[in-house]
């Protein structure tokens, strides 16, 4: 996908900025008033003071005029300080509110993407991109309001005043300013690819760092710290090179700008002194020009640096904007149907599916009918299509051809959230939120009562180990539930599924991490949970599914056997062969 343009980035920012137009306008109005009084009117008063001092040999005669001018100076100080402080108040309110809205907007937009998108992305890198998107707004808006806007107001005022007092200098200033800004913008555009490369390299470092920290157990178990350090050093070296190129180019821009400023400063002062020598301007006007020159040079120098800073911040923001601009691969239709409240009949009707255009089909004209309330097990070698069936049923991916029906209704025609509300899913390796045990169980039914949560935990045999923690249900489980054992995490996930009480249940070998004693109790709880529910069990250990109503054996995306455990054992086919290998391995 093409890199988002500045216009696109600004459009995303403006969507949230416009909600706070009042504060937005107040920022620019107050800062404009402050600049006019501090940067334009006050120097004019100083010019008058100097002219009075130069023209009046008698201090007593000049004193009343000087007092009046001093009062004016005091009044302007009060006005511009009040304006600046009101502007500061407005920008704090505006930026804090807008940044909150941008964070909410980014979170909403990011979570709209499909499960497949997140499996192909580094979690740490995504977090960094969201934070950068929000922080970049703050930095860019600060540059626009404090540098660009104030400079525009100051330069406009200076040129107007100079057109009145020294027209030739005004024309020189105006021409030079336009030339400088155009040249600075040209150099900034040249720097944009370098800023993008730096941001990309930084994201790679963040992603690798998060990946290693997440997999620190593997790092320790495989004694791979030295190897990971070596790889990390290579990645940070790429980041250093990208940053060095961007910063070096920025220094070259500064050198060119310094030459521009030196030439203008020298020529402007020479012209001003020449005009004073010939009696065209007063000494006060020379001082006024000097004050304006210093202010303009500082402002224009800041503009050059601010252009580079805004370019860098927009490069940072572009990474998330690119994600927000990426089409959502799994979308709800414009006018979705209301989902049926049936009993859970599932039909895969001549389904074809592949994970990518250049990959082989997982299913080609695949059909499967699961009656309401039926408990089936899916068996097959790795890659046979077991997990793909559950992903398609949950709409983590969409079919190429055919359709999937639940209670006679095409799942592509209902909202994804409505569809998934009818399905409880217990994965083989549950991942929990870094929240309390109570919150993790309640995730299956946010409005559940405490009694319902405790009952679900007891049925899943999670209450026993939870009660042993000093904080009980208020115990934080750590990132991804790392403080719990695999079996404990699985029991929490089972409790969550029990609480959800959905008509369709998917179990991805939900007892694989349990000890034999716990497994006995959990199997009893799961059998109770399966009653009157359509249940799909992905089986890795065949002993866990032999009591199900039906077992479907898959090979290369096709159903090769279908029946009960007893029936399939009598056929002495693929299933019987799997069973024989597992029991033989167990006996050995």
3D structure, described in words:
With 588 residues, the chain is α/β, with parallel strands linked by helices. It has two domains: 6-325, ABC transporter transmembrane region fold (Up-down Bundle), CATH 1.20.1560; 346-587, 3-Layer(aba) Sandwich (Rossmann fold), CATH 3.40.50. It is built from 18 helices and ten strands. It has helices at 6-17, 21-55, 59-111, 115-119, 123-165, 167-214, 216-221, 225-277, 283-325, 386-393, 416-421, 437-442, 450-459, 463-468, 486-500, 516-530, 565-571, 574-587, and strands at 346-353, 363-370, 375-380, 401-406, 409-410, 423-426, 504-508, 534-538, 550-555, 558-563. The strands form two sheets. It has a six-stranded mixed β-sheet with strand order 6-7-8-3-9-10, sandwiched between helices. The longest helix has 53 residues, at 59-111. The two termini are 55 Å apart.
